[in-house]
Amino acid sequence: MPLMNRPFHFHTVLSSGFAGLLLASPLVAATPTAEGIEFFEKKIRPVLVSACYDCHSVEAGKTKGGLAVDSREALLIGGDAGPSVVPGNLEKSKLIEAVRYKNRDLQMPPKNALTPAQIQDLEKWVAMGAPDPREGKTAAAAQAHGGVNRSINMEEGRKFWSFTPLAEATPPPVQNTAWVKSPIDAFLLAELEKQGVSPAPAADKRTLIRRATFDLTGLPPTAQEIDAFLADNSADALSKVVERLLASPQYGERWARHWLDVARYADSNGMDENVAYGHAWRYRDYVVRAFNEDKPYDQFLVEQIAGDLLPARTEEERREGLTALGFLALGARVLAEPDVRKLEMDIIDEQLDTLGKAFLGMTLGCARCHDHKFDPITNKDYYALAAIFRSTKSLADEKLGAIKFWYEHSLATPDDLAAKKKYEAEVAAQRSKVAKFSNETRAKLKQELQTNAPDYLAAATLLPEDPDFAKVQTLAAERKLRPRYLLTARQYLTRAPEHPFYARWRELAAAGDQDGIRKYYGDVFTRSAAALTAAKAKDPKATAPVEPDLAEAYAALNDVAGLLAIPDKDADAFDGEMLATAEVMKDDLMSLEDKTPDPPSLMGVRDGTITKTLPIHIRGSYLTLGAEVERGFPEVMRTSFTKPILSAKQSGRLELARWMAGSEHPLTARVMVNRLWRWHFGRGLVGSTDNFGILGDKPSHPALLDWLARCFIENGWSIKDMHRVLMKSSAYQMASTHPSAGQPSSGVDPAMLDPENKLLWRAHVQRLEAEQIHDAMLAASGSLSAQVGGKTVPLRNREFVFNHTSKDATQYRALRRALYIPIIRNHLFDLLEQFDYPDPTMPTGSRNATVVAPQALIMMNSPFAAQAAQRLSAKLLSDSDAPEARVQEAYVALYGRPASSHDVTRALTFVRQEGDSPEAWTLLCHTLMSANEFMYLR
Amino acid sequence: MNPFPASPLSRRAMLQRSAAGFGHLALASLLAQQSQGASAPVSPLAAKLPHHAARAKRVIFLFMKGGPSAVDTFDPKPLLDRDHGKAYPFAQPRVKFAETGKLLKSPWKFKQYGQSGLPVSELFPHVAQCADELCVIRSLHGTNPAHGGALLKLHTGSDVQVRPSMGSWITYGLGTENDNLPAFITICPTLAHGGVNNWGAAFLPAWCQGTPIGNAAVPSDQAMVKHIRNTQLSASLQRQQLDLLAQMNHEHLELTGPNQALEGRINSFELAFRMQMAMPDAQDVDNETEVTKKLYGMDNPVTSNFGRQCLMARRFIERGVRFVQVTHSDSEVQWDQHGNLYKGHSKNAAEVDKPIAGLLKDLRSRGLLQDTLVIWGGEFGRTPTAQGTDGRDHNPEGFTMWLAGGGVKAGSTYGATDDYGYFAQENKVHIHDFHATILALMGMDHEKLTYKYAGRDFRLTDVFGHVVKEVFA
């Protein structure tokens, strides 16, 4: 054993604490000695193989944390946390730090620490210069695993379609020029003609007005609106309808909802803790206004990112800008995260991820822990953006226990604050009244139970070990005892079969001697009480009798989980009148709390301490920091050769927002026009509306997309203009059926060629969205309220939606548009939840339209559906006495068409079969509302 | 003539668009009509073959909301008794929920039970009688010290983002064995601390979603699936209504031409109608024998609420439901004794002890325990150090959960915490490892059970997780 025979000098050095001397040791690059290699083979390789290779070797196909340890080179390069081994330097070698298990955030192997001997060997080995004979292609392989430093080539990256500048597309020539009402049609038709497919014929006028009205306002057309459109034979009849719809306040309510999906709008936090965003509605109403006023999209964008930094001429403008900032504040956050620095970085991540998906169609969040695995966005790009938000204050200074609150701009006047204070004082007074009653009642109850303890003990002898409650109740009534506590006593005696104080009870109970029990325990409790009084007379601080046996009796009687345990919950502890009184007092408290006013306030952010740079957080953790990065914008999207210069006095949000809203930005306009397309046509030109990256879909019509994007910018980012452009096209006005579909004999069958209808050879059949279903069911009977805006969440700001009690504090006012239904994260209104309302924690530009059985249950059994049917039925019955006219009215209200004679006969047969009563009509309406014809747009 | 004979939908696309919901019938029948003979119709929810031999076919997860203390239940620490009142001699966690004081000994005594001699505290006298069924893991550890984060981590593997729940993943991987019931049911779940996210399907198909029966604020005898009952119409009247609806929908379909969604919707009403019958029947424990009801403590006001939940769980898994979660979360006092440890844990244990033992015994006697995995535990444990004089704080650093049935090593313990029960120390099992192990017991490889979303493959265990094979029988 040469190693043992020739002790190395390092051992002495180490043990005398001079490890630092080895820092510049020539051992680093030296060829390992034979002894070194032998030591490695004997002591080190076996440990690495058995303890590390599972997760950190190329062989095993795993390089977790970007680290492989199966070659010398890989160890020297290390993983995301830095070099694993710095030869000769124990303190800088992450491997040593990890195996020492002292840093709880870096402990390896994860399941069990190595033995002290193994750790010593590793230390010895690193100190001797980490001799390691293993050659390997490991580093290259590790890179391939995405672990180490994948280098992103920005030049290559910029060639990806969505990062290229908007092309100047001209509409291509087509054969069927008669079909081309708009350049849009030329782009689409050129592709169809290439495939030999003709577009579907125009939709009939009834279908068209139903489609357009639902599309722009989310509501069905009225009978009068339909008639007027049918009667208008002018060429621009549809344009007139479109203008009427765009001018109605219901337009903003419908299209704001689309944007609110993207802004992951909600009225509550709904992550770890669910507290009310009591002022979120102000942002919602801002979005409605923005659409109704046709606020230019570039301005809309800038306000939502930097509304606080914009110059404002009036107080109204200042408020408008601050209100828009709700966008940055509405996200779902882990509010009770005790690690505040982590929380702050998590919030920044949520903001960046949302902003990236909403405005740029980019999954920026993927670059938090490492370079984006697919898109040309680096870890550095991420922290350049993060630095901007690190300079932004998103959290309020106040907190409630472990819960941190989001930042708000208060608009409260001194009067508002005074009014709030007054109510808070009343609430506090009522709360202490409730507590006082509970405490006093508990004291009385305790006194009563203790006085009657001998009777409880006596009665318990008549019950089996595990009695039925019915039996307990009968016995308790006979003995004038409280059944709940008689049961508690009996069960306690069963659970504590060896308790010495109850030994006498067990004997006497076995003998059936109730009187003996009463006498014995009555006596011992009386004496114990007297003994306590005596003890207190001697020593006022005494809490128990001095005599051991009496102390035991006292302890047993006062055991909070013992013979006479009183539950914490009033509902369990109290009965009869005392329970009723407690409940009434609590109700009063709750209604006082509900009445406490919330002074007006705007959810948002403001600039905080300006940080010009932020270090890269390795693996996304602030505990492992890397190089500092300056504030900036993702390199691949940069539209100028010079690096942006950001104000030293501001966070940089304004510069960021203006850069995103610039007409040179390759993504902003493309992403938005694609969404507008999706919301009209049912499918985006880019299917993945929120991902324009490498993993997203490619545009089905790239030239059309760029043409639309340019058109959008040229029209001053006017969204209303885009509606006009899109709806004017023949494409928008096509039927959803095609004569050649399913007819392979007649030439090209488009249904075979393009089953997903990507080429748009017909209109997509679209299911109504949740809100449309809701609103249309109410509109059919004319009972939908036209009120616009205002607070609808029935909770005070920051109030718990659900605390630990799971009690439902939310309620929904059903007669307003679904836009106003409070969006409680984790507890969505059933109809919204089941009909594919999107996850309100995630920007969503394209909703699903699933078909699941719970949707059927809602239509069949929910009170909402039943009431809507009942309202419609009542209207039909009051509007006309003629059964046929009633059926006609229902068909027009629900389907936008008259009933055929077949429809009428069937409906009337059904009504008669069910007794021709108002209930029968309700049942018919209920059925008509559940039908596919109502739920789908053709 | 069907115009889409070879509709090029991948299985994935089909799963996403599935017209099924709770059951797969809508799609199954649709496919049966469309099937041209070559390949048998695949239903997304139909029972599927696991990746490898499964030790368990179904799961009952007994979730103790709030965080039961390990050192007071299944992880006895003699040194904690000895050093009561002294300072914890090792470093405490870097991030703590609140400050805690000196070491606090357990108010309960432990005894060894069964042939295995497994130690159980006085809190669980009935479960102790089943000691030989238990496989106690004492070295769990997580990352989040707050309820919300920890619940999400335990249920979904992520405490930062919305991810599919463990039950949803298992449903996705294995499907169901009953077409008329949801594959994943959660009985009286808490709506707090992540709420629906704890049984949500996130980006997995909608049919993987857990179906809640009531919630923690609703007594279990009143807990129902939402809208499962029509209070106004008799079944026969509703049948007539659905017949009319079906007629109208079929006519409409002729007008629009074949459309998967429209056809699926026709079937979804039939499925919903059948579910209306199946669900109350499965929940109806009244026709169980008195002996069985008593076994679960249903005759007693302290245990009846949780007892009914456990008995329902058995009835669901008997009917082929894949994953049933049963939550113990009193609306006021959960297993969260920052103070009143003695009283609070006594009360909680008294409510669940007998029902849990009853469930284990009942499953055993019916031959169901061998392939049903029972899991018991909370979102974290509690500190061995005192908060106040009679309380313990949250402790995600080292805590206990136990498994029973389903191919686990019965009557055993695995892993250990330090001398005082603060940190997991030996054979540490992270929440991700725990998930990997549950999936392995169900016959699934946690690295292969993936779902592509937003361009990448997601897993329950993200990029983590080791299977703890040592707990396998």
Would you kindly provide a written description of the structure presented here, covering whatever features stand out?
The complex is a heterodimer of chains A (938) and B (473). In chain A, 50% of the residues lie in helices and 5% in strands. In chain A, the strands form seven sheets. A two-stranded antiparallel sheet of chain A has the order 1-2. A two-stranded antiparallel sheet of chain A has the order 3-13. In chain A, α22 crosses α23 (483-495). Chain B has one domain (58-228, 289-471): Alkaline Phosphatase, subunit A (3-Layer(aba) Sandwich), CATH 3.40.720.10. Chain B contains twelve helices and 17 strands. In chain B, strands 1, 4, 5, 6, 7, 8, 11, 12 and 15 form a nine-stranded mixed beta sheet that branches. In chain B, strands 2-3 form a two-stranded antiparallel sheet. In chain B, α2 crosses α8 and α7 runs antiparallel to α8. In chain B, 62% of the residues are buried.
> How much β-strand is present in the residues of chain B?
15-25%
Q: What is the rounded Rg of chain B?
A: 24 Å
Order of helices and strands of chain B: HHEHEEHEHHEEHHHHEHEEEEEEEEHEE
The count of β-strands of chain B is 17
Largest interface in this structure: A-B, 101 and 120 residues
Q: Sketch the major β-sheet of chain B.
A: 9 strands, mixed
The number of domains of chain B is: 1
The whole-angstrom Rg of chain A is: 37 Å
The outline of chain A comes out as globular
Identify the quaternary structure here: heterodimer
Task: Round the mean pLDDT of chain B to the nearest integer and report it.
Answer: 87
What structural class do the secondary elements of chain A suggest?
Answer: mainly alpha
**Would you give the CATH topology of chain B?**
Alkaline Phosphatase, subunit A
Corresponding CATH superfamily of chain B:
Alkaline Phosphatase, subunit A
Top CATH class of chain B: Alpha Beta
The low-confidence parts of chain A are 1-29, 139-149
Low-confidence stretches of chain B are: 1-42
Helix content of chain B: 25-40%
CATH architecture of chain B: 3-Layer(aba) Sandwich
Mean pLDDT of chain A: 89
Q: Count of helical segments of chain B?
A: 12
